[in-house]
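Q: A reviewer asked whether we had any structural model of the full assembly, not just the individual parts. We don't, so I'm hoping you can provide one. Inputs are below.
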Amino acid sequence: MADLLSILSTASTSLSAQRAVLATAGHNIDNANTPGYSRQIASLEAVTPAEQVNGAYIGRGAALTTVTQARDRFLEAQIPRALGDAGFSSAQSGALQAFHGLDVTDSGGLDSAISGFYSGLRALAQNPGDSSLRASFLGAAQTLARTFNSTASAVESARSGLDAKASGLTDQIDTEAQAVAELNVQIRQARASGAEPNDLLDLRQQHLDELAELAGTTTVPTSEGDVNVTLPGGLALVAGGRAGSLSTTPDGSGHLAVQVTLPGGGLTTLSSSALGGSLGGTLAARDGALKTAGDQLDQFAFDLASAVNVVHQAGYGTDGSHGLDLFTVGATSSGAASQLAVAITDSAQLATAGVGGGRGDATNANLLLETEMQGLGTSGKDVQSTLSAIVSQFGSSTASAKAFADQDGAIKTHLTGLRDSYSGVSIDEEMITMQQAQRGYEAIAKVMQTADKMLETLLNLR
Amino acid sequence: MRVTDRLVFENATRNTARAREAAQQAQQAASTGVRVEHPGDDPAAAGLIDAHRMSSARFTAISSAAGAASDEIAAADSALDGVSTALSRARELAVQLANSTYSADQRQNGADEVDGLLKQIVSSLGARVGSRYIFGGTEDDAPPFQYDPATGNATYVGAHDAREVEIAPGVTQQANVRADVAVAGYGGGTDVLATLQTLRTALRSNDVSAVQATLDGLQAGIEQVATARAQAGVSMNAFDAAKSAARVASDEDEVSAGKLGDIDLADAAIQLQATQTALQASYAATAQSFRLSILDYLK
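A: Here is a predicted structure for the entire assembly that you could use as a starting point for your response.
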């Protein structure tokens, strides 16, 4: 028969179990706002084996068995991809939206500079002998060249800014990768004691989420309980307790390439497409739409300047000059927009006249005007349509990136919302659990009080 | 769905931020009146806006050049009117003084008047618009007729060509009156000034038959100038029409660019109100959801 002292002992164990429930609820409440925290559940069990008394089993109270985390592995498996995609498209979209060199409301843009050039030429063609109109047109040509320069410079500046951002991101990625590797070691050590290190697991998951968002990494759990991390191209970034690192190096085109030092050693240069997350999106913007816009501007500047130069060379200035270029542009389109300059400094050298024409002859000025409507060498479209196509193409890339960013952001929000719903802390629930533990604790104390009184009764027998 | 506190607060943060962003965008659109700023706002419209603006600027420039050309031709026509009047007076004198009843002295006086008319014509044909001599063809930086005070004769020293000005993209129209043709008789016509000089000489020498011989030349000269004025009228009409058409085309392009890039103000005002109302509702709902807590009920 269960003796009174064993009842006290059983109650003591049960009180301890209720304290654990209360402590877990308190821990949950403490971390209700901690990012990445998964609520913990203290599981109680009846103590076995029960005591056998005269063929009957009398229970021995309750004890804490485990404290587990509420985590949905299926949901969590989808989150790194969603975070990586959202990081990629958000970074790409942000970078493209931050570039304003081709804005349509910018009065100092290419469209107004080209319009100014041809408007000045039209005024000059009406009265080519007028020195003020010649000076004005020369100024418009210089403005056109400078606008090409500044637009190309804006593109290059945006791309260089993205280099700096990529460099900063590699540092962040290294920090996160190192943290995951260290946590792999700590978790392995903690598990050796037999218990689940829930808070360390949460912390590692948080760093894995950061890595996924920054670099589009995927995670591979191992049988030892470690988590290995791989980059989108398949190269390892974290292997057990060892972390690789990313770095940047000049790529020969004036920009930076990303290299990875593998956890086991060895340096590999990564292509932009082998990276995901914010880093991949940043490089995609730099080497995608912005580079395309820069190349198209170069080609546009080269083709326009070449077309104008061919006609200009055939004409005559009021000072008799002949065979001169109006614009200085390189032999190829490479860097043409940034290098474009006006080749002449004296407006008398503007070749407005045809062969044998007088000072007021606008034969060649009218031919120069025709370059506005003629198809350019590469695009085959006229000046207006060529610029329009460049602007529209950049706009399409930006709009597409923004649409992907919105879509990927919505998926990320949905999945992380579901995770928060499943793993997050509900203060309502925890308060109820606390009440439950408190009531249990009070009742068990009552059992102890009763057993104590019964002992007292026994001890007071005379 | 299990509702957790982090979920509640993150949803509140996200939803109020979204409502605030929508209100901010509506406010930005309403205050600037601009719908498309970045090419990504509407890629197709962005390209078209640039195209319309460039086209508008092109037509504005064509309109301006056509207007300037029209002004020059109007000035030329006015000068030719003076030439025509002078030639008519010279022919009157020739008809009158070809009559044998007039004396040598009277013919001397006539010669003086013809000399004055000659100078008047040369002066008229030296007309300038701005810094340009409008009757010299492409040689427009010097007077087209050179008057020699010693001989009292004038000769054409300008260019023998036409000046062309664009009236539409790729289309040009003659923008000058060919004084070398209309007055100097280049290309087989009558040299009006030479005829006047002949008349003056005939009057001074009291040579009636020589005076009579100039009558046909003077008549041909008058008709030549009239023909030039008619051609000037045609050109002026072409430039005036081009100016108006280009102005209309420019305005249409501006309107098209505006339609693509600007907001509808009424729509913007409604959108602003709607987003602000949504923001207020979001704030109210969020604040309300924070008020309810089990902590207020547990004792």
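A: Points you may want to mention in the reply: The mean pLDDT of chain B is 93. Residues 131 and 141 of chain B are 7 Å apart (CA to CA).
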